[in-house]
């Protein structure tokens, strides 16, 4: 072996070990890094760095925040992935070869890769175009179609298009933004794009309406337009359904149009048994393949296979290039396909298809789960949705069977279901998809995720197990939503918040009962009460999840309750919210009145101090107030003055005398009784709040499906019935003379 190639392979292996090791640098290194690149770009070092240091920098950039946010493991890159990465390094090395040797090598790489792909995917006599952006192949096909229909396009340009506008047709189920991207790249107006609706009366709801397409083409031809190209799906991005490719091919032949097909179902062409609808794609003019996610190959290009007999037009469309460097795009794929071999490629595609069938078989046994698959025997994409039997639409409908607002509620619950499944079973690769007819669904597409995540049969079994645990929770939540609303509407101090996008029981707001405040003060009080109420509810020992609502919720100062279990006592929940809210409101009123009470007490204390000084002056006489004279008189004839202190009862807001304190050597404080907050609902030993006693739903409540609070609050089972607040301020009057200005100091001390 060439020593340079061997060294390159060793360096790549060492680099991958460093990047995948997950070992971070030392604490000393972290401190130094904070001053260099952590927060701002640093200058380029003059003496350079070695390879290990640079790789360590890359590794720190990739995993630098793992210690704060939890370790996030990268996607596993297997040996076949290492071959793809080696291909990028080899492409840079090969590009420096002499021109003739480079031309021979690139020609061999292109020929081999194209031959292998055409045989694997049953596309006979095809050519291949390799591109990084998976939409770029379709752009080139449009250019090829334009050069084919407009013979002088290479010299006349877009002036030819003004007399006969080209039209590009695409299904309404195509990925969003595809048609707009084509028009932008081709310089065509959006009027050149025609969106063909899907079937609405019969057949799949995700297949292109062929009869309507035929009518649209005829209308465009009669108006002087040129039908140019049709984009069809072999596996729609949302539900994985395949258009009627055979019938569409007949229409394209009839009207001399180019037929391009893309979709995940094209991967099944390598299998021994393929549905006839997908096999029809091999007769189309071009297909786009994405072997990277199908086979778990990172950074490999997408491939567009096409048939065309004129090399000059292909060159004009940019499908072929005389630059050898551009031909090296196929090198990573060339290496990876050789490493996997025919059997390895077949095994990966077959494994993904078997995972889909395994999940589909289990879903059939689960109640309240509706699936949306095109072919139950060969569908590589499984889309399912939670739906109550009494609210599910008919098989051929479009959701019109739902009651008003119930569709949005089910969408919210299914969105929560998909997020929970993706979080608790991450290796399953499920995600949430929005479909026009079905609504929000959960999608399982192992052809796009299994190879990268390493999904196995036990992951599908774990997915089904979690789904079985969550179905009762979803059913109970949907059933208790109306009960919760009815209970809230019966409480004058609560307002029900209608938010159908919230996955849970619903929202509520505690309304302040005071009506003598202006709007701003009332809103502030409502905000404070509901904020404190939310904190108190979150501290309770319960399985319920309390939140301030969705991120973009229009309603403010609300409390939203999450998913419910079968043993939930809705009436007790609402009564507890009212009770805690009332306690918070009354406590707030007490503190709001505290300022006024203290102010009046200080004023009264000032008046009594002034009166006491006047009485002292009258009792002792004027001579005792004169310096030196008063001291002599006090020495010869002491005055027996009694202490006249005052105590301020904050609860009653009044001043009392402290004479009983000094007379009996004990302070007699009047008992002030305040309204006591009601205790939290009675709780049996070992039972959490808001559960009906004796309800047989232990298996449901113990599940991890419901979001549980991490902290529990049980400092007191009952709030004390009496609460006393006493602030004692003693204002003792000494038997000696009070200097001038001493009265003011006493008042300031009290304040």
Automatic annotation (TrEMBL):
Residues 379-478 form the PDXDC1/PDXD2 second domain. Keywords: Coiled coil, Decarboxylase, Lyase, Pyridoxal phosphate. Its cofactor is pyridoxal 5'-phosphate. Gene3D superfamilies: Type I PLP-dependent aspartate aminotransferase-like (Major domain). Residues 697-707 have a biased composition (Low complexity). One of its GO terms (biological process) is carboxylic acid metabolic process. Residues 691-751 are annotated as: Disordered. Residues 595-622 form a coiled coil. Signal peptide: none annotated. InterPro entries: GrpII_AminoAcid_Decarb, PDXDC1-like_2nd, PDXDC1-like_3rd, PyrdxlP-dep_de-COase, PyrdxlP-dep_Trfase, PyrdxlP-dep_Trfase_major. This is Pyridoxal-dependent decarboxylase domain-containing protein 1. The lineage of its organism: Eukaryota, Metazoa, Chordata, Craniata, Vertebrata.
């Amino acid at each position: 072996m060439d020593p340079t190639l061997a060294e390159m392979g060793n360096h790549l292996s060492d680099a991958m070990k460093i990047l995948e090791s997950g070992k971070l640098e030392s604490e000393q290194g972290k401190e130094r890094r904070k001053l260099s690149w952590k927060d701002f770009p640093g200058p380029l070092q003059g003496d350079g760095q070695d390879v290990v240091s640079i790789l360590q920098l890359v590794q720190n950039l990739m995993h630098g925040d793992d210690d704060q946010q939890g370790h996030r493991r990268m996607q596993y890159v297997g040996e076949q992935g290492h071959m793809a990465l080696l291909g990028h390094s080899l492409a840079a090395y090969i590009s420096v070869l002499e021109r003739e040797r480079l031309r021979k090598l690139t020609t061999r790489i292109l020929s081999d890769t194209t031959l292998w792909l055409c045989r694997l995917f049953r596309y006979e006599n095809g050519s291949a175009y390799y591109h990084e952006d998976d939409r770029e192949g379709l752009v080139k096909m449009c250019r090829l179609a334009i050069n084919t229909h407009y013979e002088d396009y290479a010299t006349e340009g877009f002036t030819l298009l003004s007399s006969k506008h080209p039209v590009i047709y695409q299904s309404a189920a195509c990925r969003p933004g595809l048609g707009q991207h084509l028009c932008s790249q081709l310089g065509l107006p959006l009027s050149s794009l025609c969106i063909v609706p899907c079937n609405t009366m019969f057949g799949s709801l995700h297949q292109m309406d062929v009869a309507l397409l035929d009518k649209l083409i005829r209308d465009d031809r009669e108006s002087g337009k040129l039908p140019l190209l049709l984009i069809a799906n072999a596996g729609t991005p949302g539900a994985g359904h395949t258009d009627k490719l055979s019938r569409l091919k007949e229409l394209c032949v009839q009207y001399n149009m180019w037929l391009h097909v893309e979709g995940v179902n094209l991967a099944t062409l390598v299998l021994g048994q393929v549905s006839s609808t997908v096999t029809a794609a091999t007769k189309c003019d071009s297909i786009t393949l994405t072997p990277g996610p199908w086979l778990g190959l990172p950074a490999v290009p997408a491939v567009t296979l096409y048939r065309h007999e004129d090399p000059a037009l292909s060159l004009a469309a940019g499908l072929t290039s005389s630059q050898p460097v551009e031909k090296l795009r196929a090198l990573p794929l060339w290496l990876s396909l050789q490493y996997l071999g025919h059997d390895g490629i077949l095994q990966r595609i077959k494994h993904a298809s078997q995972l889909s069938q395994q999940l589909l078989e289990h879903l059939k046994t689960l109640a309240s789960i509706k699936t949306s698959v095109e072919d139950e025997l060969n569908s590589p994409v499984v889309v399912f949705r939670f739906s109550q039997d009494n609210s599910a639409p008919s098989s051929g409908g479009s959701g019109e069977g739902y009651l008003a607002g119930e569709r949005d509620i089910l969408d919210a619950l299914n969105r929560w279901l998909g997020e929970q499944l993706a979080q608790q079973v991450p290796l399953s690769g499920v995600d949430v998809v929005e479909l026009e007819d079905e609504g929000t669904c959960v999608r399982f597409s192992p052809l796009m995720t299994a190879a990268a995540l390493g999904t196995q049969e036990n992951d599908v079994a774990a997915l089904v197990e979690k789904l079985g645990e969550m179905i009762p929770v979803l059913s109970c939540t949907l059933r208790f939503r109306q009960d919760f609303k009815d209970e809230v509407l019966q409480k004058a101090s609560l307002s029900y918040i209608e938010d159908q996008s919230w996955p849970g029981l619903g929202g509520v707001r505690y309304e302040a009962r005071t009506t003598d405040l202006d709007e701003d003060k009332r809103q502030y009080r409502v905000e404070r009460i509901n904020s404190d109420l939310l904190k108190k509810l979150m501290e309770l020992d319960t399985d319920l999840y309390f939140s301030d609502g969705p991120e973009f919720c229009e309603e403010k100062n609300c409390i939203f309750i999450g998913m419910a279990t079968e043993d939930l006592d809705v009436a007790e929940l609402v009564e507890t919210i009212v009770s805690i809210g009332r306690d918070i409101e009354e406590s707030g009123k007490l503190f709001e009145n505290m300022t006024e009470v203290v102010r009046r007490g200080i004023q009264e204390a000032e008046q009594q101090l002034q009166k006491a000084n006047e009485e002292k002056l009258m009792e002792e006489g004027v001579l005792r107030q004169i310096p030196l004279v008063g001291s002599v008189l006090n020495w010869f004839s002491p005055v027996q003055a009694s202490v006249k202190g005052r105590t301020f009862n904050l609860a009653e807001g009044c001043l009392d005398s402290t004479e009983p304190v000094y007379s009996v050597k004990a302070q007699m404080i009047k008992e002030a009784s305040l309204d006591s907050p009601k205790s939290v609902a009675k709780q049996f030993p070992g039972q959490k709040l808001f559960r009906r006693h004796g309800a047989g739903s232990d298996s449901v409540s113990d599940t991890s499906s419901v979001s549980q609070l991490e902290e529990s609050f049980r400092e007191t089972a009952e709030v004390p019935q009496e609460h006393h607040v006493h602030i004692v301020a003693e204002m003792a009057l000494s038997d000696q003379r009070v200097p001038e200005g001493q009265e003011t100091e006493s008042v300031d001390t009290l304040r």
